[in-house]
Amino acid sequence: MPKSVKHPVDVHVGKKIRQLRHFRGLTQQELAAIVGVKFQQIQKYETGVNRVSASRLWDIARAFKVKISIFYEDLSTSPGDIAAIPIVGRDAAKVAIAFEIAPTATQAAVWAVLRAAPK
Questions:
Q1: C-alpha angle 57/63/68, rounded to 5°?
Q2: Is the pLDDT at 84 greater than 50, yes or no?
Q3: What is this structure's pTM?
Q4: With contact defined as beta carbons under 8 Å apart, do 63 and 31 qualify?
């Protein structure tokens, strides 16, 4: 893959970073200060222009208090399927992230309410 072409996984990870940042109510400047980079670097990560190193992704996950695996969720094992990953709006992303980081008992309670809701 030529260097100027964004890798779909880098774009996906960047979008997850942006979703988490929005969910946490942080600006790019605030996240950059927490992880020790310039805000322009956060911009490049979020757009997939620059790849996020393993150690920097670890720092970002710690800043958000999430498992590092959250950045890779929804990725297929087949590279051809990556383009089909749905990107949701801010509100849906906030709900999904809140659910992901909620305690197991809270997740179970939410599922119970959703199952009981009229279809």
A1: 40
A2: no
A3: 0.66
A4: yes
pLDDT value at residue 82: 45
Q: How far is CA 109 from CA 80, 101, 102, 119, in A?
A: 36, 14, 11, 18
CA-based angle 43:72:11, to the nearest 5?
A: 35
3-state SS string for 7-69: CHHHHHHHHHHHHHHHHHCCCHHHHHHHHCCCHHHHHHHHHCCCCCCHHHHHHHHHHHCCCHH
Q: Coil, strand, or helix at residue 85?
A: coil
Q: What is the pLDDT of residue 49?
A: 92
Residue 103, class by beta-carbon neighbours within 10 Å (0-12 exposed, 13-18 middle, 19+ buried)? Answer: exposed
| Nearest alpha-carbon partner for 47 in 25, 75, 16 | 16
Q: How far apart are CA 118 and CA 26, in angstroms?
A: 36
d(CA 20, CA 17): 5
